[in-house]
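Let's practice the habit of predicting before peeking. Look at the sequence and jot down your guess about where helices and strands might fall. Then scroll down.
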Amino acid sequence: MKRTVFAVALLVALAAAAPALAVEASEAPRSKPLAVGSAFPDVPLIGPVSPEAAAALGIAPGKAQTPINALTAEVLVVEIFSMYCPYCQKDAPTVNALHDLIGKRGLSNRIAVIGIGAGNSDAEVDIFRKKYAIPFPLFSDAAFAVHVRVGEVGTPFFYVLKKQKDGSYTVLDGSLGVINSPAEFLSFITRKAGI
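Done guessing? Here is the structure:
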């Protein structure tokens, strides 16, 4: 009986410590997410970047291939999505709400959100951006080159990264599935990042 009570208490504690994600996702059979504490690869971010997004990310505007380590955000939330993923479509308003909440809490100078479209061309990413009024930068990965380097994860998948002194990013967390609560997820991010 004591073991059962302990096990239930442990599960509740673990659930409270985890990000507020519901596991609604398109799974990938070869998925091997990057480990917490590991270096995030300096993948290229491909696609057009608006002047507003470029200013927020600390990069040049226009169509370019920018290495992720060129971004200046102290904490970077990277959503691996696909325009064809029904869970990504369903979650788009919630991720938009997360981005808006970051701004409302005065954290947009420290936390940035980007999306990388696994298997999506610039045109497909642009369709997704317009259809769901995405306010943060989205990048294409038509050949799945980035997707392979970040663990061939299912979608949507969220990496929370922390900028290091050498300019690289380290993985603070990786989670498969839709965001249940933007406020809880932001609270989790700030706790993990020490903000």
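How did you do? The CA atoms of residues 26 and 86 lie 8 Å apart.
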